[in-house]
């Protein structure tokens, strides 16, 4: 096959490209230039959008012996990922930009261009496994390495995208990938993994949002209110600085009557009100999902599990679908779940699909 290997400049994508080439595929490496100004994104080894990362990817391609190109997708990335991130926070929701990047950039814009150029598949360094099911459809399963499994952020991929994807690392553990990289002479063998959000230069999400939204946000400033008493405990500069379940950085000063910490329970972007209360009030047992993305056959009713955060725990759940609406009953309550997050649905290790959480229903206080 003719394979386009997306090379971020990290160890995982480099080894994935090397394995694809070793398997006999005709591999071409590409690095995605996602920043209009590379200096404004992550520096050093903390991200995947810098000039250093591009150079690391090029050197890895040279060692592997494959052609290498840089594709500028910065405008598309800014529109589909960065602006979406800002819009979601301004609306009081908590998005995951990595899912949006996979959905809109790596497995849409890149894959579409690759197929148009005559490539058969795109290979990445994601930790997930692909198998052909009994019905002939391509199934995506969790990776062998539970600690590195990335099937959650790939839960937005549909059947056509999976049919043109390769995940060469799905059957490997991270320590083995690093050893293999060193044995292959890849200089990125010991390069640290990227963390946090690649386009937030210093990892301070709230500060970045404050700088980008600031006075332009419709919800600039508001009250922090105690749910139980209704008392105003303080003021804030914008709801975009908060997410459901947040405990630190509330700056409300006055302790709760029982001395326990308060958490963000609700965010109202129109009035600017942030409601806080005890941790037990964060428990939710029902979720309403919208904009579902199915990896294969659409389930009518499924007793399986859902994952609500990247590398988060699984929750037993009953999932029912009705057109573009997904109802999720959590048999194991979850805490601190916010609208905008993704609920990725599993049947065992198989990824069934995902939905964006539109609303949650909290466990009654007297339950």
Automatic annotation (TrEMBL):
Keywords: ATP-binding, Cytoplasm, Disulfide bond, Nucleotide-binding, RNA-binding, Transferase, tRNA processing, tRNA-binding. It is found in: Cytoplasm. It comes from the Bacteria. Residues 286-357 form the tRNA-specific 2-thiouridylase MnmA-like C-terminal domain. Residues 148-150 are annotated as: Interaction with tRNA. It catalyses: S-sulfanyl-L-cysteinyl-[protein] + uridine(34) in tRNA + AH2 + ATP = 2-thiouridine(34) in tRNA + L-cysteinyl-[protein] + A + AMP + diphosphate + H(+). The record marks 126, 341 as: Interaction with tRNA. Its main location: cytoplasm. SUPFAM superfamilies: Adenine nucleotide alpha hydrolases-like. Residues 213-277 form the tRNA-specific 2-thiouridylase MnmA-like central domain. Gene3D superfamilies: Adenine nucleotide alpha hydrolases-like domains, HUPs, Translation factors. Catalyzes the 2-thiolation of uridine at the wobble position (U34) of tRNA, leading to the formation of s(2)U34. NCBIfam families: PRK00143.1, trmU. This is tRNA-specific 2-thiouridylase MnmA. It comes from Nocardioides koreensis.
């Amino acid at each position: 096959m003719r394979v386009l290997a997306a090379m971020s400049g990290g160890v995982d994508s480099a080894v994935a490209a090397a394995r694809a080439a070793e398997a006999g595929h005709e591999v071409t490496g590409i690095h995605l230039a996602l920043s209009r100004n590379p200096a404004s994104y992550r520096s050093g080894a903390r991200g995947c959008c810098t000039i250093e990362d591009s150079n690391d990817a090029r050197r890895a391609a040279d060692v592997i012996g494959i052609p290498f190109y840089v594709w500028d997708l910065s405008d598309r990335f800014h529109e589909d990922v960065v602006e979406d991130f800002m819009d979601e926070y301004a609306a009081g929701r908590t998005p995951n930009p990595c899912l949006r990047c996979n959905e809109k950039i790596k497995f849409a814009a890149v894959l579409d261009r690759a197929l148009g150029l005559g490539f058969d598949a795109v290979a990445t360094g994601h930790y997930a496994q692909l198998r052909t099911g009994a019905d002939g459809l391509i199934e995506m399963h969790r990776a062998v390495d539970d600690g590195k499994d990335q099937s959650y952020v790939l839960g937005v991929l549909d059947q056509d995208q999976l049919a043109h994807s390769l995940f060469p690392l799905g059957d490997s553990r991270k320590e083995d990938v690093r050893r293999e990289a060193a044995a292959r002479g890849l200089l990125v063998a010991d390069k640290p993994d990227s963390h946090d959000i690649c386009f937030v230069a210093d990892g301070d999400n709230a500060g970045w949002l404050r700088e980008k939204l600031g006075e332009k946000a419709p919800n600039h400033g508001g009250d922090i209110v105690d749910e139980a008493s209704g008392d105003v405990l303080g003021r804030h500069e914008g709801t975009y600085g908060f997410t459901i379940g947040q405990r630190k950085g509330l700056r409300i000063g006055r302790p709760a009557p029982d001395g326990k910490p308060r958490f963000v329970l609700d965010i109202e972007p129109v009035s600017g009100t942030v409601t806080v209360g005890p941790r037990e009030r964060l428990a939710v047992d029902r979720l309403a999902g919208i904009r579902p993305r199915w990896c294969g056959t659409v389930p009518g009713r499924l007793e399986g599990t859902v994952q609500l955060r990247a590398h988060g725990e699984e929750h037993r759940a009953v999932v029912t679908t009705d057109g573009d609406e997904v109802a999720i009953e959590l048999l194991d309550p979850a805490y601190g779940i916010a609208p905008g997050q993704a609920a990725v649905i599993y049947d065992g290790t198989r990824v069934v699909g995902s939905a964006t959480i539109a609303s949650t229903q909290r466990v009654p206080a007297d339950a």
